UniProtKB/TrEMBL annotation:
Pfam families: MerR_1 (PF13411). InterPro entries: DNA-bd_dom_put_sf (IPR009061), MerR-type_HTH_dom (IPR000551), MerR_fam (IPR047057). Keywords: DNA-binding, Repressor, Transcription, Transcription regulation. It comes from the Bacteria. One of its GO terms (molecular function) is DNA-binding transcription factor activity. This is Transcriptional regulator.
DNA sequence: ATTCTAACA
DNA sequence: TGTTAGCA
């Protein structure tokens, strides 16, 4: 097996931006028909990144996946398409902020005192402490605030 | 095999 | 919106 830089692996593990889907995949993932996806795009409800190599196939990103999933949810709740889009747009900036924070949350993984600890970054503004997380046999997460360099 | 557009037994 | 046809 080839050597892999641990930090480079972490950079990608929590970077869903690299996920790209074609229309058939997005359709199966969300339960929204390909016909609907193309129609929504014609109405500027969603957008795709065209040009998939040889074909002129649509390519969707991770954010669009969530947007489609949200619209689908509201449609199933009985909202009209227009209302579903409206509600989705209202809550989407929350998703973007959450996504941005989560994407930057995991800074590394270290073995501390024989226990696997996930580095969640500096804990205080003065950068004197760092937040770590571990998980026990019952899959319960425990948080630890440790002084820097300790 | 999959996606594309256009159109409607 | 579904579902075809005929392409690429």
């Amino acid at each position: 097996m080839a050597y892999v830089d641990k930090r480079k692996v972490l950079e990608n593990v929590f970077k869903p931006d690299i996920f790209k889907f074609r229309i058939g995949e997005l359709s199966q993932m969300t339960g929204v028909s390909t016909r609907q996806l193309r129609y929504w795009e014609s109405k500027d409800i969603i957008q795709s990144l065209h040009r998939d190599g040889t074909q002129d196939a649509r390519v969707y990103d991770y954010e669009t996946f969530h947007k489609v999933q949200a619209i689908k949810y509201f449609l199933d709740e009985g909202y009209t398409l227009r209302a579903s889009v409206q509600r989705t747009n209202e809550i989407f900036d929350l998703f973007k902020k959450t996504h941005a924070i989560i994407g930057n949350a995991v800074r590394g993984i270290e073995e501390i005192n024989g226990e696997t600890m996930v580095d969640l970054g500096v804990f205080d503004e003065e950068q004197q402490t760092r937040l770590w997380a571990s998980i026990d046999d019952e899959k319960k997460v425990h948080y630890h605030v440790r002084a820097e360099g300790e």
